[in-house]
Every structure is written in structure tokens, then in C-alpha cells.
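Structure ticket #2291
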Amino acid sequence: MAKKGGFGGGMPGGMNMNNLLKQAQKMQADMQKAQEELELKEVESSVGGGAVVVKVNGKKEVVDIQIKEEVVDPDDVEMLQDLIMSAINQALRDIDEMQKSQMSKFTGGMNLPF
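Resolution: structure written out below.
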């Protein structure tokens, strides 16, 4: 006798809801752990031949800026500002790429926000 529709008997292919739920919970825990690890990492960006060096952590916080003395010119403050902005923006792009790379392991390449 054939079974009628309903939710008894599990999902096709032998997968049951409990296993699916456990896998989803494990993936969520793994993603959380990976995100926490990323927050502890730092990237360093250097511009102007090392004239300005910026370090940014995985929380996208600037944690260090180094400026060589010879690049500090009171008559050309705009150049120094441009170097600092450039170094910070590059460090932030590097952090974004690191996060995307790490999270793509979980999302299978889907471009999901995190």
C-alpha cells in the first residue's frame, strides 16, 4: 500500500530533518568561529614606498599608523592626507577580501552579505 502525502518518513534521499538541522547548526557555529578569528587578524598596507604604513584589524579598526618623517612637509599637507587615505582604504579592501575568501568556504561562492 502506497503512503499518502505528509511529513512522516523523512525527506527524499534518506536525509531527515534532524540531520539537516544539526548540519545547519554546525555550519553556523563554524562561521561564527571563523568570523571571530578574522576579527583578530591584522593587515598592513604601505603606500609611497613605505612613507605611510597602516595596520587595520578584522573589525575594520585602524590599530597603527606609521609616517616617515621625510614625508611630513608643512607646505604639502594635502599629499600626506592623500597617502594616509590611500593606505587606509587599501587596508580596508584587503580586510574585505580576506573576509570574503574565508566566508566563501561556507557559502559555496554565493555572494551573501555578512
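Closing remark: The two ends are 48 Å apart (CA to CA).
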